[in-house]
Amino acid sequence: MFERFTQDARAVVKGAVEQAAAMGATSVAPGHLLLGLLEREGSRASFALAVLGGGEWKDAVRAEPAEVRRRGGLTQAGTEAPAGPGIDVAEIVARVEDTHGVGAPSGSGRGRRTGPEDGAHPVREGGEGGAAGALRIALARRERRIGDEHILLALVSRPGVPAEVFAGHGVTHESVSRVLHGGGETKAG
Predict the structure, then answer these.
(1) Are the CB atoms for 162 and 33 separated by under 8 Å?
(2) Basic and acidic residues bias: where (predicted)?
(3) Whole-model pTM?
(4) 178 alpha-carbon distance from chain centroid
(5) Any idea where the domains of the chain sit in the sequence?
């Protein structure tokens, strides 16, 4: 499938692998793809993000996946849901980190081996969902090539950390589609 990716889409995936390595992750997750998208300039997805205000919240978004990872992968909605019966996820994370070290809930605590020995970073199920989702979106639009705009649409439409991050900044699948494919005053070219 990777041979169908445009140069921009390949650069996003490469950026995601670099983000995963920099964070000590053993696999590429959707949050890494989000960070790979945010690093791009001069592409259709970067144009759409700029139109949607990405320049204003780009730095804040970079910190959000790290915070989700610190909570053991729970999204904000995942931490708020247990609050009803009185479970404080932030307190649980703090206690686990006090006992086992910073990053312990994510499996990246001190003293643990966090990267693969050969330097490879396999794509985790959610990360594959971003690529597979991008393929489905491209096929639905009858487009032969998969661009970074397809990755953006896949991440914004699939439940998980990237979609939650986008939603927190008012970015929806509909708003991204409108910017990318028209239906409004601005269209990515």
Answers:
(1) yes
(2) 114-127
(3) 0.68
(4) 21
(5) 2-72+123-181
